[in-house]
Specification:
18-stranded antiparallel sheet; 18 strands; 53% strand; elongated
Length: 217
């Protein structure tokens, strides 16, 4: 009996002196982290930014396989993190700004002389980032993801308005990027010089939280 009592006491002492082994907390195992995959959780309220990846362009072409349309070499998005749960899960962000530098844009559409502006409307959008890397951008209920393109043409300035229910992209930890490929927009207003459908392709990288790279877990 005395031997069993001593063993019990020793076990109790060990339990008190050794650190408990518990699952990683949401703060240490979140969907969005900085520094590395599985690194420090991105805090709710942090602002994430990303420019176009070096050497790439954001394009809005008239077909999924063609090269006729609009191309911009300078664009950036800014989003505020609204939820960052434990992985596996889905983090959410408010996409507050998505800009295109019209000075970097060109058009190779017949009758179009240049691009005056590209404006993303109906902001903010809700962005969800899932642990599998799927990124989905949606507008508020009753609204749409919308872009207004103002073009200079032989007949003067024209406005082309394009809408889509949502955008779906892919996040990669290889280069901390988000890529959208041939996301289809439909023209909702504008002249015949505005192509009927626009297919949006762009790669944004790196996604950062301040100076720190952002990873998806």
């Amino acid at each position: 009996m005395r031997t069993r009592s001593l063993l019990a006491v020793a076990g109790a002492v060990a339990a008190l002196t050794l650190p408990a082994v518990t699952p990683a907390s949401a703060a240490d195992n979140a969907v969005l982290t900085t520094g590395s995959a599985g690194g420090t959780a991105v805090a709710v309220g942090d602002v994430l930014t990303a420019p176009l990846a070096d050497g790439t362009a954001a394009t809005l072409y008239s077909s999924a396989t063609g090269t006729s349309g609009i191309s911009c070499t300078s664009s950036q998005f800014t989003a505020t993190v609204t939820d960052n749960p434990a992985t596996p899960g889905t983090a959410t962000e408010s996409l507050d700004a998505h800009t295109f530098d019209s000075g970097s844009c060109s058009a190779n559409v017949i009758g179009v002389l240049g691009v005056t502006s590209i404006t993303v409307n109906n902001l903010p959008y809700t962005t969800s980032v899932s642990s599998d890397g799927t990124v989905t951008v949606t507008a508020a209920s009753g609204s749409a993801v919308q872009t207004t393109v103002v073009l200079r043409t032989l007949l003067g300035s024209i406005n082309c308005v394009y809408q889509t229910p949502s955008l779906v992209g892919t996040a990669s930890n290889d280069d901390n990027s988000i890529t959208f490929t041939n996301q289809q927009f439909t023209r909702t207003s504008g002249s015949s010089l505005c192509f009927a459908n626009g297919y949006f392709t762009a790669k944004y990288a790196p996604v950062t939280d301040g100076d720190a790279l952002v990873y998806v877990n």
